[in-house]
Design a protein that fits this description.
The protein is α/β, with parallel strands linked by helices. The protein is built from 11 helices and 7 strands.
Protein backbone atom coordinates (compact mmCIF):
# COMPACT_ATOMS: atom_id res chain seq x y z
CA UNK A 1 0.00 0.00 0.00
CA UNK A 2 2.95 2.30 0.60
CA UNK A 3 3.99 2.31 -3.05
CA UNK A 4 0.40 2.83 -4.16
CA UNK A 5 0.02 5.88 -1.91
CA UNK A 6 2.99 7.48 -3.63
CA UNK A 7 1.25 7.14 -7.00
CA UNK A 8 -2.25 8.21 -5.93
CA UNK A 9 -2.74 10.72 -3.10
CA UNK A 10 -4.96 9.04 -0.55
CA UNK A 11 -6.84 10.41 2.43
CA UNK A 12 -7.00 8.04 5.35
CA UNK A 13 -10.62 8.05 6.47
CA UNK A 14 -12.96 5.76 8.40
CA UNK A 15 -13.04 2.35 6.81
CA UNK A 16 -9.91 3.14 4.76
CA UNK A 17 -8.04 -0.11 5.48
CA UNK A 18 -11.16 -2.25 5.21
CA UNK A 19 -12.06 -0.56 1.92
CA UNK A 20 -8.68 -1.43 0.45
CA UNK A 21 -8.86 -4.98 1.73
CA UNK A 22 -12.25 -5.58 0.08
CA UNK A 23 -11.49 -3.52 -3.02
CA UNK A 24 -14.40 -1.15 -2.33
CA UNK A 25 -12.40 1.99 -1.65
CA UNK A 26 -12.97 4.66 -4.37
CA UNK A 27 -9.24 4.63 -5.18
CA UNK A 28 -9.40 0.88 -5.91
CA UNK A 29 -12.42 1.40 -8.09
CA UNK A 30 -10.63 4.16 -10.02
CA UNK A 31 -7.68 1.81 -10.59
CA UNK A 32 -9.99 -0.88 -11.95
CA UNK A 33 -11.54 1.59 -14.39
CA UNK A 34 -8.08 2.73 -15.48
CA UNK A 35 -6.92 -0.87 -15.99
CA UNK A 36 -10.01 -1.62 -18.03
CA UNK A 37 -9.41 1.41 -20.27
CA UNK A 38 -5.73 0.44 -20.66
CA UNK A 39 -6.66 -3.07 -21.75
CA UNK A 40 -8.67 -1.59 -24.61
CA UNK A 41 -5.67 0.45 -25.76
CA UNK A 42 -3.05 -2.32 -25.58
CA UNK A 43 -4.12 -4.20 -28.76
CA UNK A 44 -3.65 -1.04 -30.80
CA UNK A 45 0.00 -0.90 -29.80
CA UNK A 46 0.70 -4.65 -29.65
CA UNK A 47 2.92 -6.34 -32.27
CA UNK A 48 1.28 -7.49 -35.48
CA UNK A 49 -0.48 -10.84 -35.32
CA UNK A 50 2.12 -13.59 -35.58
CA UNK A 51 -0.19 -16.58 -35.88
CA UNK A 52 0.79 -17.09 -39.53
CA UNK A 53 4.59 -16.87 -39.22
CA UNK A 54 4.85 -20.66 -39.25
CA UNK A 55 3.18 -20.72 -42.67
CA UNK A 56 5.33 -18.07 -44.36
CA UNK A 57 8.46 -19.43 -46.12
CA UNK A 58 11.63 -18.14 -44.47
CA UNK A 59 15.34 -18.52 -45.27
CA UNK A 60 16.34 -17.51 -41.73
CA UNK A 61 17.79 -20.95 -40.93
CA UNK A 62 19.49 -21.18 -44.33
CA UNK A 63 21.49 -18.09 -43.37
CA UNK A 64 22.37 -19.57 -39.99
CA UNK A 65 23.57 -22.99 -41.15
CA UNK A 66 24.24 -22.70 -44.91
CA UNK A 67 26.45 -25.79 -44.89
CA UNK A 68 23.51 -27.96 -43.80
CA UNK A 69 21.37 -26.57 -46.61
CA UNK A 70 24.17 -27.20 -49.09
CA UNK A 71 24.43 -30.80 -47.87
CA UNK A 72 20.68 -31.19 -48.34
CA UNK A 73 20.92 -29.80 -51.88
CA UNK A 74 23.64 -32.33 -52.66
CA UNK A 75 21.43 -35.16 -51.42
CA UNK A 76 18.62 -33.90 -53.66
CA UNK A 77 20.94 -33.77 -56.68
CA UNK A 78 22.19 -37.28 -55.96
CA UNK A 79 18.63 -38.61 -55.67
CA UNK A 80 17.90 -37.38 -59.18
CA UNK A 81 20.45 -39.83 -60.56
CA UNK A 82 18.58 -42.88 -59.28
CA UNK A 83 15.20 -44.25 -58.32
CA UNK A 84 13.58 -42.30 -55.47
CA UNK A 85 10.43 -43.83 -54.03
CA UNK A 86 10.35 -42.11 -50.65
CA UNK A 87 11.29 -38.64 -49.42
CA UNK A 88 11.73 -37.89 -45.71
CA UNK A 89 10.90 -34.24 -44.98
CA UNK A 90 11.85 -32.65 -41.66
CA UNK A 91 14.41 -31.17 -39.32
CA UNK A 92 17.42 -32.59 -37.44
CA UNK A 93 15.52 -35.70 -36.36
CA UNK A 94 15.13 -36.50 -40.05
CA UNK A 95 18.64 -35.33 -40.93
CA UNK A 96 20.17 -37.66 -38.34
CA UNK A 97 18.85 -40.74 -40.07
CA UNK A 98 21.92 -40.48 -42.30
CA UNK A 99 23.88 -37.39 -41.25
CA UNK A 100 25.44 -36.44 -37.93
CA UNK A 101 26.41 -32.81 -38.62
CA UNK A 102 27.70 -32.01 -35.13
CA UNK A 103 29.86 -35.12 -34.90
CA UNK A 104 31.41 -36.28 -38.17
CA UNK A 105 33.45 -38.95 -36.38
CA UNK A 106 30.45 -40.95 -35.16
CA UNK A 107 27.93 -42.49 -37.56
CA UNK A 108 24.46 -40.98 -37.60
CA UNK A 109 22.28 -42.67 -34.96
CA UNK A 110 19.70 -43.68 -37.55
CA UNK A 111 22.10 -44.89 -40.25
CA UNK A 112 21.86 -48.64 -39.54
CA UNK A 113 18.06 -48.57 -39.70
CA UNK A 114 18.09 -46.37 -42.81
CA UNK A 115 20.39 -48.85 -44.53
CA UNK A 116 18.26 -51.79 -43.43
CA UNK A 117 14.82 -50.45 -44.29
CA UNK A 118 14.86 -47.33 -46.44
CA UNK A 119 17.97 -47.24 -48.62
CA UNK A 120 16.64 -50.09 -50.75
CA UNK A 121 13.60 -47.95 -51.44
CA UNK A 122 15.78 -45.20 -52.85
CA UNK A 123 14.85 -42.91 -49.97
CA UNK A 124 15.90 -39.25 -49.98
CA UNK A 125 16.79 -37.55 -46.71
CA UNK A 126 15.36 -34.02 -46.98
CA UNK A 127 16.04 -33.08 -43.37
CA UNK A 128 17.92 -30.02 -42.08
CA UNK A 129 18.74 -29.36 -38.45
CA UNK A 130 16.99 -26.47 -36.64
CA UNK A 131 14.34 -26.15 -39.34
CA UNK A 132 10.91 -24.90 -38.36
CA UNK A 133 7.87 -25.35 -40.58
CA UNK A 134 8.51 -22.03 -42.32
CA UNK A 135 12.07 -23.09 -43.18
CA UNK A 136 10.90 -26.36 -44.73
CA UNK A 137 8.40 -24.38 -46.80
CA UNK A 138 11.26 -22.23 -48.07
CA UNK A 139 13.32 -25.29 -49.04
CA UNK A 140 10.42 -26.89 -50.86
CA UNK A 141 9.96 -23.59 -52.65
CA UNK A 142 13.58 -22.81 -53.55
CA UNK A 143 15.46 -26.09 -53.92
CA UNK A 144 15.42 -27.69 -57.34
CA UNK A 145 13.09 -30.68 -56.91
CA UNK A 146 12.29 -31.01 -60.62
CA UNK A 147 12.43 -34.58 -61.82
CA UNK A 148 11.85 -36.14 -58.41
CA UNK A 149 8.65 -38.15 -58.22
CA UNK A 150 8.55 -39.97 -54.90
CA UNK A 151 5.61 -42.26 -54.29
CA UNK A 152 5.52 -41.50 -50.57
CA UNK A 153 6.48 -38.42 -48.54
CA UNK A 154 7.17 -38.90 -44.82
CA UNK A 155 6.74 -35.64 -42.92
CA UNK A 156 7.98 -35.04 -39.36
CA UNK A 157 8.14 -31.35 -38.51
CA UNK A 158 7.08 -28.91 -35.81
CA UNK A 159 9.29 -29.58 -32.79
CA UNK A 160 11.41 -26.47 -33.46
CA UNK A 161 8.26 -24.35 -33.44
CA UNK A 162 8.17 -25.02 -29.70
CA UNK A 163 7.88 -21.34 -28.81
CA UNK A 164 4.79 -20.91 -31.01
CA UNK A 165 1.25 -21.36 -29.73
CA UNK A 166 -0.41 -24.66 -30.59
CA UNK A 167 -2.59 -23.23 -33.41
CA UNK A 168 0.52 -21.83 -35.09
CA UNK A 169 2.34 -25.16 -34.82
CA UNK A 170 -0.64 -26.92 -36.38
CA UNK A 171 -0.99 -24.33 -39.14
CA UNK A 172 2.70 -24.73 -40.00
CA UNK A 173 2.48 -28.52 -40.22
CA UNK A 174 -0.62 -28.28 -42.40
CA UNK A 175 1.18 -25.80 -44.66
CA UNK A 176 4.09 -28.22 -45.11
CA UNK A 177 1.65 -31.00 -46.03
CA UNK A 178 -0.07 -28.73 -48.55
CA UNK A 179 3.23 -27.63 -50.09
CA UNK A 180 4.39 -31.24 -50.33
CA UNK A 181 1.19 -32.10 -52.19
CA UNK A 182 1.92 -29.21 -54.55
CA UNK A 183 5.54 -30.15 -55.23
CA UNK A 184 4.90 -33.91 -55.40
CA UNK A 185 1.26 -34.22 -56.51
CA UNK A 186 1.42 -37.98 -56.92
CA UNK A 187 2.93 -38.75 -53.51
CA UNK A 188 1.02 -40.29 -50.64
CA UNK A 189 1.57 -38.37 -47.41
CA UNK A 190 2.65 -40.01 -44.17
CA UNK A 191 2.40 -37.55 -41.28
CA UNK A 192 4.42 -38.52 -38.21
CA UNK A 193 3.48 -37.29 -34.74
CA UNK A 194 5.74 -34.64 -33.24
CA UNK A 195 8.04 -36.55 -30.90
CA UNK A 196 8.33 -35.89 -27.16
CA UNK A 197 10.96 -33.50 -25.84
CA UNK A 198 11.70 -31.79 -22.56
CA UNK A 199 11.21 -28.28 -23.88
CA UNK A 200 7.58 -28.52 -25.03
CA UNK A 201 6.13 -31.93 -24.28
CA UNK A 202 2.62 -30.89 -23.22
CA UNK A 203 2.26 -28.34 -26.01
CA UNK A 204 3.26 -30.82 -28.72
CA UNK A 205 1.03 -33.50 -27.19
CA UNK A 206 -1.93 -31.12 -27.60
CA UNK A 207 -0.86 -30.35 -31.15
CA UNK A 208 -0.60 -34.08 -31.92
CA UNK A 209 -4.18 -34.72 -30.80
CA UNK A 210 -5.49 -32.13 -33.24
CA UNK A 211 -3.12 -33.13 -36.04
CA UNK A 212 -4.15 -36.78 -35.76
CA UNK A 213 -7.83 -35.86 -36.04
CA UNK A 214 -7.10 -33.57 -38.99
CA UNK A 215 -4.98 -36.22 -40.74
CA UNK A 216 -7.80 -38.74 -40.46
CA UNK A 217 -10.28 -36.25 -41.88
CA UNK A 218 -7.86 -35.35 -44.70
CA UNK A 219 -7.34 -39.05 -45.57
CA UNK A 220 -3.64 -38.92 -44.72
CA UNK A 221 -1.68 -41.74 -43.14
CA UNK A 222 -0.82 -40.80 -39.58
CA UNK A 223 1.97 -42.66 -37.76
CA UNK A 224 1.93 -42.10 -34.01
CA UNK A 225 5.56 -42.75 -33.10
CA UNK A 226 5.24 -40.51 -30.02
CA UNK A 227 2.88 -43.02 -28.38
CA UNK A 228 5.66 -45.62 -28.54
CA UNK A 229 7.99 -43.42 -26.52
CA UNK A 230 6.70 -43.48 -22.93
CA UNK A 231 8.28 -41.64 -20.02
CA UNK A 232 11.42 -43.30 -18.69
CA UNK A 233 12.87 -41.74 -15.55
CA UNK A 234 13.27 -38.04 -16.26
CA UNK A 235 13.11 -38.46 -20.04
CA UNK A 236 11.34 -40.53 -22.70
CA UNK A 237 12.11 -43.89 -24.22
CA UNK A 238 14.24 -43.48 -27.33
CA UNK A 239 15.54 -39.98 -26.64
CA UNK A 240 19.21 -39.05 -26.49
CA UNK A 241 20.78 -37.33 -23.50
CA UNK A 242 19.62 -33.90 -24.68
CA UNK A 243 15.99 -35.02 -24.28
CA UNK A 244 15.26 -33.77 -27.79
CA UNK A 245 16.96 -35.85 -30.46
CA UNK A 246 16.55 -39.57 -30.97
CA UNK A 247 19.04 -42.13 -29.74
CA UNK A 248 19.85 -45.23 -31.75
CA UNK A 249 17.05 -46.96 -29.85
CA UNK A 250 14.70 -44.16 -30.83
CA UNK A 251 15.44 -44.58 -34.52
CA UNK A 252 14.79 -48.29 -34.10
CA UNK A 253 11.34 -47.52 -32.66
CA UNK A 254 10.68 -45.04 -35.49
CA UNK A 255 11.78 -47.49 -38.19
CA UNK A 256 9.72 -50.36 -36.81
CA UNK A 257 6.59 -48.20 -36.80
CA UNK A 258 7.21 -46.73 -40.23
CA UNK A 259 8.45 -49.65 -42.31
CA UNK A 260 5.17 -51.65 -42.39
CA UNK A 261 3.34 -48.47 -43.41
CA UNK A 262 5.76 -47.81 -46.28
CA UNK A 263 5.56 -51.42 -47.41
CA UNK A 264 1.76 -51.22 -47.54
CA UNK A 265 1.62 -47.88 -49.34
CA UNK A 266 4.25 -48.79 -51.92
CA UNK A 267 2.68 -52.20 -52.58
CA UNK A 268 -0.70 -50.58 -53.16
CA UNK A 269 0.51 -48.50 -56.09
Amino acid sequence: MGSLSRLIPLRREPGFDEGFRTGQHPACMRLRVFASMLSLLVPAFAPADETTLSTVPSNENAKSVPEWYEACARRVAEAKTRRCEVIFIGDSITQRWTDNPLNRVTAAPGQAFWDRYFARRGALNFGVGSDKTQHVLWRLDKMDMEGLKPKVAVILIGTNNHKDPVPQVIAGVKAVVAKTHQVFPGAKIVLVSILPSERAYEKMARANLRLKKWAEEAKLTYVDVASKMPVEGNSWKGLAGDKLHLSREGYGIFAEELEPVLARLLAAR
